[in-house]
Specification:
- With 239 residues, the chain is of the alpha/beta class.
- The protein is 36% helix and 26% strand.
- It has a four-stranded mixed sheet with strand order 1-2-4-3, covered by helices on one side.
- Strand 10 (164-167) and strand 11 form a beta hairpin.
- Helix 3 (117-147) packs across helix 4 (184-196) and helix 4 (184-196) packs across helix 6 (218-227).
- The longest helix is centred in the middle third of the chain and has 31 residues, at 117-147.
- The relative contact order is 0.12.
- The mean pLDDT is 90.
């Protein structure tokens, strides 16, 4: 991998078996990457990147101004999100098995007396995973039929750098549990993105054509996902 420098901007260059140059700016810090055909000369790529310099700076400015969620303490009247909707948290200390419920206004977190912030966060995270497990299997079955692929297994975990990932050889999909806080159509977009990698492992023209066919508005979905408030961990989540 090579690195181009244009003033204070560094661009990581990767050469692959692709036909066209792909320039990307990634949240949250505005990291810049360029994917180019295998035989591209560095000076030609530098000239191309220079023509896009104002666009790069504009994208970086958007990410630098992007809101971040406040650090969660899991206390009463704190704001929390489920499927893109804001709820107020109500923490109750009771002598029962820890759990979470919600209605149209609030999320109720029930924990035993003396439960610290880490324990409260753990109970919420397990509940988040349960919400995802309720919707993902049906989505997978729907898109297995449409794409003609088979997901052998899917996993949920906290991820700092990706919304999802795919192990092409094993047929495994991995999804970020933070997706439970985003609108459901964004979860579906990420899932379809990763399932499409079971057909095309890379992000080349064939992969883009596949998304264009099955999710015509995937670019808008990606932009919406990137423009939503970032997690309090400061994760650089991307696709």
């Amino acid at each position: 991998m090579d690195t181009l420098k244009l003033g204070d901007i560094e661009i990581a260059v990767t050469r692959k078996d692709v036909k066209h140059v792909h320039l990307s700016v990634h949240p949250p810090e505005g990291r810049v990457t360029l994917v180019a055909p295998a035989r591209s000369r560095l000076e030609v790529l530098r000239a191309y990147a220079a023509t896009r310099l104002s666009w790069i700076r504009k994208q970086q400015a958007v990410f630098h101004a992007q809101a971040r969620e406040a650090q969660r303490r899991y206390v009463t009247r704190e704001s929390h999100y489920l499927w893109g909707r804001r709820y107020l948290l109500d923490v109750r200390y009771v002598d029962v098995k820890p759990g979470v419920s919600h209605d149209h206004k609030r999320i109720t977190l029930m924990v035993r007396s003396g439960s610290d912030e880490a324990k409260r966060a753990e109970v919420m995270h397990e509940w988040h995973k349960m919400q995802l497990h309720r919707v993902i299997p049906d989505l997978i079955r729907t898109w297995e039929s449409r794409l003609g692929v088979k997901v052998r297994a899917y996993y949920l975990q906290r991820m700092k750098t990706r919304w999802g990932s795919c192990h092409h050889a094993r047929g495994h999909i991995r999804l970020n549990t933070e997706l439970v806080k985003k609108p459901r159509h964004l979860l579906e977009y990420v899932l379809v993105h990763e399932m499409s990698h079971l057909i095309v492992p890379t992000h080349d023209e064939r992969f883009v054509a596949l998304l264009d066919k099955h999710v015509p508005r995937w670019r808008e979905a990606r932009m919406e996902l990137n423009e939503l408030p970032l997690a309090d961990s400061g994760a650089d989540c991307r696709l």
